[in-house]
Amino acid sequence: MNKKIFWVGAISFLVVAITVLGYMVFAKPSDFRGTAYSEPYPLAPKIDLKQADGKSFHLSDQQGRIVLIFFGYTSCPDVCPTTLAELNVALGKLGDKSKNIQVVFISVDPQRDTPEKIKNYVERFNSSFVGLSGSLEELQPIWQGYGIFREVAQGGTATNYVINHTARITLIDARGNLRLSYGFQTPLEDIVNDIDILLSQ
Predict the structure, then answer these.
(1) Is residue 18 domain-shared with residue 85, that is, in the same domain?
(2) Whole-model pTM?
(3) Distance between CA atoms of 142 and 45, rounded to whole angstroms?
(4) Which of 177, 169, 173 is nearest to 34 (CA)?
(5) Residues 118 and 160 both lie in one domain
(6) What is the pLDDT at residue 60?
(7) Which domain holds residue 15?
(8) What is the DSSP code string of the chain?
(9) Which of 158, 183, 149 lies closest to 168, judged by CA?
(10) How far is the C-alpha of 35 from the C-alpha of 180, rounded, in Å?
(11) What tens digit of pLDDT does each residue of 114-164 get?
(12) Which segments in the chain show pLDDT lower than 50?
């Protein structure tokens, strides 16, 4: 065999092998399906609120876990219960991996949602869910930090009214960064897919 042909073939094989190996090692995982935040990922705005048992919930204490945050209220007729039910199903699909995930439901209705009421509400969907409320002064900076629109709809009474609000799930990664968000009725498979990717990183 001509030595020149041999070496050309050997070098070509080596180049192909290195390319394939590099792809296997450095290839990015499947694309995320949620709406991604731009890099560098912003640090999630802080959340410090009292829970029903009097203990403080600090978002910063959740580092090392994926946090899924949804803003809503216990008197919500449709969007909030649907979203919480779907998040419960998503955790079920993740099986043992769900221990690395924390779902947090934060009120947009502090007038009616006491910490005790919102705790009891979320635990109907999953006992691991955290429900948080507080005063208007405590909640407003959090709503603003997460870009939550909220308004009391016209036509209600002092105790019976509807609140229009942003209906998006916010995903915070294990480093405490804003990574992804999901609109109402995003397929569960999309959320599960993205969590699987993050847990494998």
Answers:
(1) no
(2) 0.84
(3) 7
(4) 169
(5) yes
(6) 96
(7) 1-30
(8) --HHHHHHHHHHHHHHHHHHHHHHHH---SPP-SEEPPSSPPBPPP-EEE-TTSPEEEGGGGTTSEEEEEEE-TT-SSHHHHHHHHHHHHHHHHGGGGGGEEEEEEES-TTT--HHHHHHHHHTT-TT-EEE---HHHHHHHHHHTT--EEEPTT--SSS--EEE--EEEEE-TTSBEEEEEETT--HHHHHHHHHHHHH-
(9) 183
(10) 5
(11) 999 999 999 999 999 999 999 999 999 999 999 999 999 988 888 899 999
(12) 4-29
Q: 18 and 94: one domain?
A: no
* CATH number assigned to the domain comprising residue 149: 3.40.30.10
Same domain (yes/no): 93, 10: no
Residues in the chain: 201
Amino acid in position 7: W
Count of structural domains, the chain: 2
Claim to verify: residue 92 and residue 190 sit in the same structural domain: yes
My answer on whether 23 and 50 are in the same domain is no
